[in-house]
Design a protein that fits this description.
Elements (H helix, E strand, L loop, with lengths): L7 H8 L3 E6 L5 H15 L4 E5 L26 E7 L8 H9 L1 E8 L10 E4 L6 H12 L6 H14 L10 H12 L4 H7 L6 H11 L3 E3 L2 E6 L1 H6 L10 H5 L7 E9 L2 E8 L6 H6 L3 E2 L3 E6 L3 H18 L6
Parallel strand pairs: 1-2, 1-3, 3-4, 4-5, 7-8
Antiparallel strand pairs: 6-7, 8-9, 9-11, 10-11
Helix pairs in contact: 2-4, 2-5, 4-5, 5-6
Bound molecules: guanosine-5'-monophosphate and manganese (II) ion (MN).
Length: 329
């Protein structure tokens, strides 16, 4: 007997495939890499040839995730039956590797947990209630494909669960989130190692940039924000790709419901990173700016000067503060 579920189409595509490529989003975080490798290990376990790729490769602090060493930095050869995109809410986020995978694969599975997902695949495993893409992958692997959890799968997926929930502290964490984490720990995932290497670790270089950013900090009408000019990286001899996570820190400010960091990546190109307290929606602000994300964590790329970017975005954030209500029950 076959029953139709959200997994049916993706299972069929995977079962019929020999060669699969999994790609996650540019500037990958722990959920991106954890889900990329969790899915990769699971599908290799059933005898598939699986390539895993992300533009620029795995960030240093995530190299402990098993299988990182074989992740392809720039996909430039190969053909696949199926391309699985993980944790990318739109196709542009899959980067050059995603574009190559799309052009050289017969079908696309879109596995994600963003409410702003644009459903760019042929089969969609998109669950906006999931705390992480790793949770969607966990459900697919264990309930959809009915595969056993190995230590490598567990360590990978637990990385995604821990990082996207900031250590099980976000407002979307449910009893089942902790049940999944318990299952992954029982299968060999190390909560201690994951926490130490992700949430409790940051390069000194990032603090050199924080120091510059704090000089620019402003607080108005429940919005706190900072701006980081490109020359801050040059002055401090810091790689502009360093992970800052500054808005994540700023949103702790008691007087702020919304936090923003504007980072100039090069002339005319600004990365916006947004965070909000529970009850306030910055996801739709980012989406309206051509980016995306979640209610409480989102981002976009803007063009222009830092001043122009702040002048455009801060009023939208003040409106998001007005339209929300703190919900920390
Ligand atoms: P971060 O502030 O850590 O760079 O991004 C927070 C979240 O916002 C990411 O996990 C991702 O879900 C989303 N996000 C950030 N930038 C973009 C973007 O340019 N496009 C889309 N679609 N989502 C983004
Ligand atoms: Mn995620």
């Amino acid at each position: 007997m076959t029953t139709t579920s959200i997994w049916t189409e993706a299972n069929r595509l995977v079962h019929d495939a020999q060669r699969i490529v999994v790609v996650t989003h540019v500037a990958p975080d722990g959920d991106a890499i954890g889900t990329l490798l969790g899915v990769t290990h699971a599908l290799r376990g059933i005898g598939k040839h699986v390539d895993a790729a992300v533009d620029g490769g795995v960030p240093d602090y995530l190299r402990y995730v098993p299988g990182s060493e074989a992740v392809i930095k720039q996909l430039a050869e190969g053909q696949w039956d199926v391309f699985i995109s993980v944790d990318s809410s739109d196709e542009a986020r899959t980067g050059d590797s995603g574009a190559y995978a799309r052009a050289n694969s017969r079908a696309v599975i879109n596995l994600d947990h963003h409410i702003t997902n644009t459903r760019f695949g042929d089969a969609h495993l998109v669950i906006a209630e999931a705390v992480s893409a790793a949770e969607v992958a966990f459900d697919w692997v264990t309930q959809g494909l009915n595969l056993p959890l190995t230590r490598d799968i567990a360590q990978s997926l637990l990385t995604g669960m821990v990082t996207d929930t900031l250590g099980f502290r976000t407002s979307n964490v449910k009893p089942r989130t902790l049940e999944i984490a318990q299952t992954l720990m029982a299968a060999g995932g190390s909560l201690t190692e994951i926490t130490a290497r992700t949430l409790d670790s940051r390069p000194y270089d990032s603090l050199l940039i924080w120091r510059e950013a704090f000089e620019t900090m402003q607080l108005e009408d429940g919005v706190v924000w900072v701006s980081i000019p490109y020359n801050a990286f040059e002055r401090n001899h810091v790689d502009p790709a360093v992970e800052l996570n500054l808005s994540e820190f700023l949103v702790k400010v008691d007087e702020a419901m919304v936090a923003a960091s504007f980072k100039q990546e090069r002339e005319g190109d600004i990365r916006l990173s947004l965070r909000s307290k529970p009850g306030f929606d910055v996801g739709s602000v980012a989406f309206s700016l051509g980016g995306g994300g979640h209610k409480q964590a989102s981002g976009a790329t803007l063009y222009g000067t830092l001043e122009e970017a702040a002048a455009q975005v801060v009023p939208l954030l003040k409106a998001a503060v007005k339209n929300g209500m703190l919900d920390i029950r």
